[in-house]
Amino acid sequence: MAIYYSQQPVILRDVVLSNKPEAMLVSSPKGTVPVLVLSEKNVIEESLEVMLWALGNNDPDDFLHSNNHEALAQMLTLITRFDNDFKVSLEAYKCAKRYHEADLIQRRQTCELYIQDLEQRLTDQNFLMSSKSSLVDIALLPFIRQFARVERQWYLQSPYPHLRKWLNNYLQSRMFSKVMAKSPLWSPENEAIIFGPSICGKV
Prior knowledge:
The protein starts with a helix and ends with a helix. 55% of the residues lie in helices and 6% in strands. The chain is mainly alpha-helical. The mean pLDDT is 95. It has two domains: 2-60 and 181-200, Glutaredoxin (3-Layer(aba) Sandwich); 71-172, Glutathione S-transferase Yfyf (Class Pi), Chain A, domain 2 (Up-down Bundle). Helix 5 (104-123) crosses helix 8.
């Protein structure tokens, strides 16, 4: 999503982690995605770092809120909270649902402590940091999308109308359809797939 908004063209290589290509492991021995290879000696291996690279190179919609010197630090603090603490609670919630565990409601309520914070933020503004979209919105979007899918019927009736509106705004956007479009699996023999201004319709 950050690459889409930054209009940075990249060569996209779609892989299956159960059958990792040798070229991927040569570039990034840890064998996880995403992997952004800028050069042989410059490889970015974490999602947030990829986002910061993309928007640091080009940020036409000001996702980093460049006019607010405290904004980036505030966004990174919230992202870290979700990436560390909420992620653990979300995985426990998903497992409780999948395996029909007795503590499902308790697991959900633990997640709701974080969800309530976002709902409160969205009560007075359309996005998590301000009246416009930002790094923190697209960073937290995957977490909230997963949360919404665990107990779909409960979520649709939950006391979080602003969060639902916020999520739907992204899920129904042109951006999301482009980012989630399926690509052929990469192999050295295939023609390179460019993700960026050309495929995204950005000029």
